[in-house]
């Protein structure tokens, strides 16, 4: 696959048993300047992996920083569209949205589609953010956004992490747009969704809203 823009890749590997680390190191011989890996011991949570990656990119001066799934649920070709939304469109945050134009999800059972969609309805009702896909994990941030959000104070490490990051960007009055994508569920591996993670997201949204009443969001 050849993209019209160049992107560097950082993989955060929390001791994956599927040989991810070994494969990345093998590919680094061919893509030494573009492909990077950080290996951490144990499962430390989705949110901490992203924050580690954000800090890594900020330290190295990247102007646009992305998060995405590495299992091709997110189409790499859409990286260019997110980049252009920020670079040419002038937005601070561009979200690859499954729901901005109907429901664009492939290979999910109807129960999970409904849970994901109505989670967005719930988040919009509580937070008042006008974001159709607040739980989505395919995002481009301008570096100024990640420099402003206090990353060390992000509370959640599961799927509520995605909501918390967007809510912070919203509260700091960064401009946010959604770019329609088609999300294709993985064909191998299993979802990390659990009752605990779902509960964190449900109650976490209320907690975030309450906390926002007692914080200052000036930049």
TrEMBL record:
Keyword set, alphabetical order: Glycosyltransferase, Transferase
A molecular function (GO) term: glycosyltransferase activity
Keyword Glycosyltransferase appears in the UniProt entry: yes
Domain Glycosyltransferase 2-like: 5-148
Pfam families in UniProt: Glycos_transf_2
EC number: 2.4.1.-
Family: Belongs to the glycosyltransferase 2 family.
Protein name from the UniProt record: Polyprenol monophosphomannose synthase
Taxonomic source organism: Emticicia aquatica
